Amino acid sequence: MKILIIGGGGREHALAWKLSQSPRVSEVFVVPGNAGTALEENVTNIELSISDLDSLVAFAESHAIDYTVIGPEAPLVDGVVDRFEEKGLRCFGPRADCAQLEGSKAFTKEFLKRHNIPTAAYGTFTDVSQAMTYLDKVGAPIVVKADGLAAGKGVILAKTVDEAKSAVKDMLQSNQFGEAGSRVVIEEFLTGEEASFIVIVDGTDVLPLASSQDHKAAYDSDMGPNTGGMGAYSPAPVVDQICHDRIMSEVIQPTIHGLAADGLRYRGFLYAGIMVAVDGTPKVLEYNCRFGDPETQPILFRLKSDLLDLIEAACHGGLGEQIAVWDSRAALGVVMAAPGYPGDYPRGTDISLGQDTEDTKIFHAGTTMSGDQPITSGGRVLCVTALGSDVSEAKVKAYERLKSVHFEGAEYRTDIGYRAVERESSYSSRREIDSAN
Ligand code: AMP
Ligand code: GLY
User: Fold this and answer.
1) Which residue's CA lies nearest to atom 11 of ligand 1?
2) Which H or E element spans position 198?
3) In this structure, are strands 267-276 and 217-219 parallel, antiparallel, or unpaired?
4) Is the confidence at residue 159, as pLDDT, over 90?
5) What is the pTM for the complete model shown?
């Protein structure tokens, strides 16, 4: 079978790497891909724009592609799946109507409310003075979000009412986020621990994937500006069996039923960003209509099942009979970013990669080939991923592997996985106390 993957980041490298291992896959094409996909066996990069939907459809038709898998949200929100399906082509991802779950925060908040799915209290505004009055009433801390897609940058966690007011003005008056910020959602500030809960949906059945957690802030201790994600690991210890069951019954199942009740047939990866409160209550922070980046890298590094089987089942029915088999080890990925990211950064710097091993793998993101030499081409450059007996060991191995990777000015967090490591060390000290007693 021939597979086409749309996107050029770390998520798409991981998808291409995993799908190319399926015994039933003969060739994987990636639009536009990166140096990592260029270097994988049986994977070919294709230079097309991911927003040129006509060319993507034409490529899939002319190359007799069996399945197209969409990585990023923008083409999904723009209706890429609808376009493929009009031509009778199989394309894995939600159609535009369902992709609104990521494309519009106001749509999502209304959806959550309508179906009684737990989430932060909120208001939606297009009028500045009404937003100001609301902020005066609810106070701070408070969260201001641009309604539309803003590449993870349209969320302001305001500590004071003044900060929230200026964020609202930036969005509604100064047009800082363009069309995406012409409507804002103002919502209650939630506390707890975040987890990424990603499932495969076929319209009716759901297959949960392994839990994960990412780190959105640029610097150690979750300081600094928000980024696309500076590292991730799987599983997330905060999602224990009780929490998993609560997320399934209180969030995922009501979401699937809600979509069906609204006449929406969701097929694809569905990512619920969850805040788990101290008492274990899960609340939805956001939905993404795709796999997470960088969560995909550690999650797929642990997946033992053939991903093509799962995608095929989701496209043709029978997802309910599928189980995903996981490596019992934990995986952790550290993002190496270009100097200055998430602000401006240089491109075109030579990268030396060192050697992957059985339990380490470098997934590329913002890289490209210059002849035989991989060079940087984006903000998030690489995700250095490792397996270990638990998150703490995976962390040690990932940072050890990272020492043999070089490009000038590389920036990375040194504390990826710290919450899981804290939990693991408290379990092991408890075990020591128990065994001493
Ligand atoms: P979003 O794009 O909506 O997921 O927001 C990006 C990040 O902002 C989330 O991953 C959280 O870390 C944080 N965030 C979003 N909404 C809230 C909220 N209501 N309370 C606290 N943190 C939030
Ligand atoms: N890592 C967060 C996301 O993919 O949106």
Assistant:
1) 285
2) strand 193-202
3) unpaired
4) yes
5) 0.94
